[in-house]
Fold:
Amino acid sequence: LLQLIAKSQLTSLSGAAQKNYFNILDKIVRKVMEDQYNPRLIKDLLQDLSSTLCILIRGVGKSVLVGNINIWICRLETILLWQQQLKNLQMNKQVNNGLTLSDLPLHMLNNILYRFSDGWDIITLGQVTPTLYMLSEDRQLWKKLCQYHFAEKQFCRHLIPSEKGHIDWKLMYFALQKYYPVKEQYGDTLHFCRHCSILFWKDTGHPCTASDPNTCLMPVSPQHFIDLFKF
Structure:
């Protein structure tokens, strides 16, 4: 949701919404710096945000930016500072004399890789040990990933054969990403009840009065959530 706002919705935010947005970002950056958890995601978000801000600031007057231009320049400088802090982030090496990832048998390591839905996560894990690298290069793994995210007719249009004549499924995955959106996954999702006209988290539910509540539920993606506010 924050990334969608960074890419296309900044000019529609009110002054109060802007303040809340950047306060949330500040807390996320602080949390990542403290816990060293998922820095790549916030780096991608800040990159999108800085690119959008640079375009808006350079084209001031051509688009509506709510607030003083000096405030936006100050925010851009803050984003650049956050990016530098994350760039300098040193990941602490965990000292543990117990069981490690490398101690797991091959079939368990393979099962872990097959549960990933993001290609970059697979590549990152493959850089940990030579064994994981070997498993991360498996053609069947990348084929399953392509089949999970894309329809057969989509990757049939962009077949990339290897030197041996086989389909290079790893290259296919990243090529298809440029043309089609990948399947979205979330730990919890918003749902909309058409009967009660109410938004709620799927895990918490709501006391629906419909005779068959399941037929009234509709999942709400971050993009759909933003679209609800368009008049």
Q: What stands out?
A: The chain has a mean pLDDT of 84. The longest strand covers residues 190-193. The chain has eleven helices and three strands. The chain has three domains: 1-88, 101-179, 190-228.
